[in-house]
Specification:
The complex is a heterotrimer of chains A (294), B (317) and C (539).
Chain A (H helix, E strand, L loop, with lengths): L1 H9 L9 H8 L1 H23 L31 H37 L1 H15 L3 H12 L3 H28 L2 H9 L3 H12 L1 H25 L10 H4 L3 H4 L6 H28 L6
Chain B lengths: L1 H28 L4 H7 L7 H10 L6 H13 L13 H36 L4 H15 L2 H15 L15 H36 L1 H9 L3 H31 L1 H7 L4 H11 L2 H29 L7
Chain C lengths: L9 H21 L11 E6 L14 H7 L7 E3 L7 E3 L2 E6 L5 E6 L13 H12 L16 E8 L2 E6 L6 H5 L9 H6 L14 E7 L3 E6 L13 E6 L3 H10 L4 E2 L5 H11 L3 E16 L9 H9 L3 H11 L19 H4 L9 H15 L5 E8 L2 H16 L3 E8 L1 H10 L4 E7 L5 H4 L19 H12 L3 H18 L3 E14 L2 E2 L17 E2 L2
Parallel strand pairs in C: 1-10, 1-11, 13-14, 13-15
Antiparallel strand pairs in C: 2-3, 4-5, 5-7, 6-7, 8-9, 9-10, 12-15, 12-16, 17-18
Classes of the chains: A mainly alpha (294), B mainly alpha (317), C alpha+beta (539).
């Protein structure tokens, strides 16, 4: 940890030969592919109203359970809605909830971790006990509990999923932060009389960016999966919103043998998205800190 | 070492106590009333007098402190109270579903381990080459596939292609192993795949770490056969983090298979949790959460013990 | 016949006789119902929910009835094969006094409980005492239905007498509630809560086993009072919450049916898989969906806005479209369409929202909204339960209907606990509600629309004394025709003139079942079924 920080400070100039991002893509083609897929997804989400062939919420009782055909590339569902259009619009829900929840959750977790590591003592002990408690449960149950309390709906879902990630991110970031905390320049800053918050933001935070980013990408994939699970259980977004997890619920399962396309396409969408995010996350982790590699 | 073990053990109690208090409070914050749910959700009309009488009977009108102390006293007698929905003892409700969940967790773990360790080892040994890439893709995919979707696909194939419907009710393993396994093998596969993905990655990276260590390089330089190095040194040391991961994931399987149990219609603990929350059955929820937390905490403690035993360098700082 | 027939050879006569016998046999085989019931076999059926407790007096859900009711007998019950006729079960016969204040029931002798003891009028008195006037902390969910009863007496072991405070029509129908299990007096005295977790009755089946979350098993009671019944050796209930598993189980023959009802798409799925092997029973269901409007919230306090909301909904068109994907169909007001108090179509189409010309209704609606000052694209939330069948379909449909008069409605589906809490607290704009019962009685169906300070289930929050008065009038009228007139007046005022709330569609029961199940008749509600004593299994 110490050498890493020193290298960062001492020899930044030596790294200017080729742009780090370009180097990253060359060394991690899989990660690049993942990033590309994510951009495609973002594009789909942004351009959905123009790309999608049909209105995702328009019922068409004359065209229910139609198999994939030229008119409906991915078939229709129980209300006659076009599955492809719903998958495309579902990207919006997935990304909004996924990005929103992972960003909020990871950031909150990181802040708590750094602050707790800095202040130490009784604060740290208390916070760690609380985090211990939250870590004693599978994420799905924590999310379930929070949703029961605050209710369902896109915004509430983001909060619920975000909160579920906080303990895990907190643990990892705190681990890193503890390492930084022990370093002499922190002590030096304190001796000089620098304010706590100044130390936290100017000295400690930049040094935990690596684990933070890693946890951020890890949370993104998990957030999308969690949203899918909650919607599947009926505790996520409501009909007629287009959301991948919601599309897998109810009729998709009941009529899986009769109309398998209802279940296949949304599931595929989830898998590919989370795959892309995970692969990118892996490459990031490899590049930023080989010691965190799994 | 004993000091380490003792301290870890003593930490269990405050954690569980905090869990108990938190659950007790949180469960009562959730809007919704169990009596209403039971009597009104059928669609027929019930007078408020009836609802009040039932609330009185379930002890819901007693002061919170009384309710909490009663529950706590009960725990010391190993009595988790009565389910507010059915009137059966909470322990009984859980005991009916626990064998299935436990067996599913064990089966998934076995499948995962059987896949992960050989694959992870293979990938680590042939690092950078195509085998490694393939294994990596398979395991990353395993983390990306929603396990309930995998479950739906499995059912789709079984029903649609083979016309086969797995048994719908649970028979204990010793009573009728065939029926038992016929029901549980499919969800075990669905869950095991994801589980194996995590373990494969951990096996691979742990082995890679160990293989880079000096003593391995020394042994290699000394001319020791590869498989001897593997068996005697590398695997044994890599086992530590792998076992940790297996243990932690296992702990989460007991209550965490909520969605899988829904898809496969299994009468397990996860399904009970969802039902209990939906029914606002305070006593049952409290009992379940306590047990889930206990399971996790115990597994953690066991893993800590294992660590301390296998690696004498670790002490409590 | 010619005299030459005397000479018809014996063989020929025999052959003719044989043909005649074969023809007769063939004719009786064609319609299986003419067959004599076969004894034996175990009926396996599905229940999609579990019983909370096992006490019929306390619970209100079919989930308790479906596995438990075969263990019990009733004083009087609905004849499922001639629904809604009421026949005596434990009562051999009964008489009512001229003034309608005294009902005397003659009880069968020699009826045994499953533990061998004999049933007397004491048990019936104890049972109804518990239902009508529960003591202590015993809960009787339908207590309010029997407010007219003064006392229940058992003057001798074979007689039970009900004395009423005032005459009320349909009293015997109310006694026939499928929840009125007859319990043993001795047990009730010993432990009034015993029946919540245990079974001891006089019904056609004994209790064998119950594994929570999994299954329920019952076996024929050899000493059942009705000789020759039940035909079945036993029954088994599988608790399956997942609809796909339920369908798969029925398609594979692991279960023969489920007694609540399936959606049209599920029916198509089963028929496609089983074809000739399956029979389908359909009936109008004593269940419906309504929408309650929060009259305390602006702009819903304005009757014009409320009328606009109900005018915009195309019920006749919706009946066509929605019946394809959900188990809704009949169009009606507060009383079940096809029932004896249903409003005749001529009157019905005059109510707001029931007209055949939807374009005109929508025009009216838009005009009313403009008049009331509601802007274009006005937004509000429709709260709904998170169950797909038929709530989700109905909700999605309503949102679409209101879109067509320029309203932007947000559909919010919430889980049960929150749903009931919000409903009670008045925390909604509009909410999709429902009502299900075993009886088509105005006393029960109209209760929802009484003033908020009178009715415990008025969620609209309004007060209307005219409605209250009409309710009391119809409740005391014995003459059916006159009573119907009061009921229709009530409906007109509540649904059309004031539009405090409105009915969307009534439900339709669709029960596919394997043809091997005989003696089954689909009735209008899922509370009086299954009537296992009269079912039997063909080969």
């Amino acid at each position: 940890m110490v050498e890493h920080a020193l290298v960062e400070r001492v020899a930044p100039a030596a790294r200017r030969r080729s742009h780090p991002v370009a180097r990253f893509f060359r060394r991690h083609p899989l990660g690049a592919a993942g990033l590309f897929l994510i951009f495609v997804l973002l594009g789909l989400a942004l351009l959905a109203p123009w790309i999608a062939p049909y209105d995702p919420v328009a019922n068409d009782f004359g065209a229910m359970f139609r198999p994939p055909s030229f008119r409906h590339w991915s078939g229709t569902d129980a209300y006659g809605r076009d599955v492809l259009s719903r998958v495309i619009f579902g990207a919006r829900t997935a990304l909004v909830i996924g990005f929103g929840a992972s960003l909020i959750g990871a950031t909150l977790g990181a802040v708590v971790g750094v602050v707790s590591a800095y202040f130490g003592g009784k604060t740290d002990l208390l916070v760690q006990r609380l985090v211990d408690v939250m870590l004693s449960f599978p994420i799905i149950i924590v999310a379930l509990a929070i949703v029961s309390i605050i209710g369902t709906g896109t915004d509430k879902l983001i909060v619920a999923i975000a909160l579920s990630f906080v303990p895990r991110v907190e643990r990892v970031v705190r681990g890193s932060a503890l390492g930084v905390r022990a370093m002499t320049y922190i002590e030096a800053a304190q001796v000089i009389g620098a304010g706590s918050w100044r130390i936290i933001f100017r000295h400690m935070a930049p040094n935990v960016v690596a684990p933070y980013l890693v946890m951020l990408t890890a949370s993104l994939g998990q957030a999308i999966l969690l949203e899918a699970s909650l919607s599947f259980l009926g505790l996520g977004v409501s009909e007629p919103t287009a959301a991948w997890g919601l599309m897998l619920r109810g009729a998709a399962v009941d009529f899986a043998t009769r109309a398998p396309w209802m279940a296949i396409f949304p599931g595929l969408a989830i898998t590919l998205t989370v795959l892309a995010v995970n692969v990118l996350g892996d490459s990031l982790r490899d590049a930023l800190d080989p010691r965190l590699r799994t | 070492m004993t000091r380490y073990v003792l301290t870890r053990f003593l930490l269990i109690l405050p954690t569980l106590l905090t869990v108990a208090v938190l659950i007790f409070i949180l469960v009562r914050i959730v809007p919704g009333d169990i009596v209403e749910l039971r009597l009104v959700s059928g669609g027929s009309f019930v007078t408020p007098g009836v609802i009040e009488a039932e609330r009185e009977r379930l002890g819901l009108n007693k002061p919170l402190w009384n309710q909490f102390m009663e529950w706590m006293m009960g725990i010391f007698r190993l009595d988790l109270g009565l389910s507010m929905w059915s009137g059966n003892p909470v322990i009984q409700e859980i005991a009916i579903r626990l064998p299935l969940s436990l067996q599913l967790a064990v089966m998934a773990s076995l499948i995962a381990t059987a896949i992960a360790i050989p694959l992870g080892t293979l990938a680590a040994l042939h690092r950078g080459r195509w085998i490694d890439q393939v294994v990596q893709v398979i395991s990353v995919a395993g983390l990306a596939v929603p396990s309930f979707w995998l479950g739906i696909l499995i059912i789709l194939v079984l029903l649609g292609v083979f016309g086969y419907l797995p048994p719908l009710t649970f028979t204990p393993l010793l009573e009728n192993p065939r029926a038992n396994l016929a029901q549980l093998i499919w969800p075990a596969l669905a869950v095991g795949y994801r589980y194996s993905a995590v373990t494969t990655r951990m096996t691979r990276s742990a082995l890679l770490e160990v293989l880079r260590e000096d003593y391995v390089r020394t042994a290699w330089a000394k001319g020791l056969a590869r498989h001897v190095i593997l068996r005697r040194h590398a695997l044994r040391n890599a086992l530590l983090p792998v076992v940790t991961v297996i243990g932690l994931e296992f702990a989460f399987l007991i209550g965490g298979l909520v969605v899988t149990e829904q898809v496969f219609n299994l009468n397990g603990v996860g399904k009970l949790i969802v039902e209990a929350i939906g029914q606002r059955d305070y006593t049952l929820i409290q009992g379940l959460m306590l047990l889930v937390a206990l399971g996790y905490v115990l597994v953690n403690f066991l893993v800590d013990l294992l660590y301390a035993w296998l690696d004498p360098r670790i002490t409590y700082q | 016949m010619h005299s030459s027939d005397v000479g018809v050879p014996r063989a020929r006569r025999l052959a003719l006789a044989l043909v005649a016998v074969l023809v007769v046999l063939a004719l009786t085989q064609v319609e299986g119902t003419a067959q004599a019931p076969r004894h034996g076999g175990t009926l396996v059926y599905i229940s999609t929910a579990q019983p909370p407790s096992l006490d019929g007096h306390r619970e209100t859900t079919f989930a308790m009835l479906h596995p438990v009711k075969p263990h019990y007998s009733y004083l009087v019950k609905f004849d499922t094969q001639n629904y809604p006729k009421v026949v005596g079960d434990l009562a051999e016969s009964w008489t009512a006094s001229k003034d309608g204040l005294v009902y005397t029931f003659k009880i069968r002798s020699g009826v045994k409980f499953h533990d061998g003891s004999t049933l007397t009028s004491k048990d019936i008195k104890a049972t109804f005492d518990r239902i009508i006037l529960p003591k202590g902390d015993v809960v009787s969910a339908r207590q309010a239905m029997y407010q007219s009863v003064k006392t229940v007496e058992a003057p001798n072991p074979q007689t039970v007498v009900f004395r009423l405070k005032y005459a009320t029509p349909g009293f015997v129908e109310k006694l026939a509630s499928p929840f009125n299990f007859v319990y043993k007096a001795e047990i009730l005295e010993r432990d009034p809560h015993w029946y919540e977790r245990n079974v001891m009755g006089t019904g056609p089946f004994r209790f064998v086993e119950y594994v929570r979350g999994s299954h329920w098993v019952g076996r024929r009671f050899e000493d059942y009072w009705e000789r020759g019944k039940p035909y079945l050796d036993g029954y088994r209930v599988l608790f399956i919450a997942s609809r796909s598993s339920m369908l798969a189980a029925i398609k594979s023959g692991q279960a023969l049916t489920e007694f609540r009802g399936v959606s049209p798409a599920e029916l198509a799925d089963i028929v496609r898989a089983l074809g000739e092997k399956v029979a389908v029973g359909t009936a109008a269901w004593q269940c419906n969906n309504t929408v309650a409007i929060n009259t305390k919230k602006k702009p819903f306090d304005d009757v014009r806005v409320r009328r606009a909301l109900t005018l915009a909904v195309d019920r006749w068109g919706g009946s066509q479209a929605l019946s394809e994907i959900a188990f809704v169909k009949p169009v009606g007001a507060m009383m079940r369409p096809g029932g004896q108090y249903a409003m005749p179509e001529a009157e019905l189409t005059k109510l707001a929202g029931y007209g055949r010309d939807i374009a005109q209704s929508r025009q009216q609606a838009r005009a009313l909204l403009r008049e009331a000052g509601v802007p274009e694209n006005f937004s509000f939330t429709l709260k709904n339960r998170d169950i797909s069948m038929p709530y989700e379909a109905v909700g999605v449909y309503l949102v679409d209907q209101w879109r067509q008069i320029g309203l932007n409605v947000r559909h919010e589906q919430v889980e049960a606990g929150r749903y009931f809490a919000d409903q009670r607290a008045g925390n909604y704009d509009l909410v999709v509600d429902f009502a299900c019962d075993f009886i088509d009685d105005p006393d029960v169906q109209l209760l929802k629309f009484l003033s908020a300070d009178v009715s415990p289930v008025n969620y609209g929050g309004y007060v209307d004394r005219q409605l209250d008065a009409l309710y009391v009038r119809q409740s005391r009228t014995a003459d059916k025709a006159q009573r119907a007139r009061f009921v229709h007046e009530f409906e007109r005022r509540a649904l059309s003139e004031q539009a405090y709330g409105f009915y969307v569609l009534w439900w339709q029961r669709i029960i596919p079942y394997w043809k091997t199940l005989r003696g089954y008749n689909t009735t209008t509600n899922h509370y009086v079924e299954p009537d296992l004593a009269v079912y039997w299994l063909a080969e």
